[in-house]
Amino acid sequence: MRKLTFTVLAGSALALAACSGANDEATDETATAEAPAADTAETTAATTVMDANTVTEEQLAAMDGVTPELAAAIVAGQPYENVTAFNTVLMETLDEDQAATLRETLFVPVNLNTGSEEDIKLIPGMTEKMEHEFMEYRPYEDMNEFNREIGKYVDEAEVARFRNYVTL
Question: Scanning 9, 18, 95, 141, which has its CA 20 to 30 A from the CA of 114?
Answer without folding.
Answer: 95
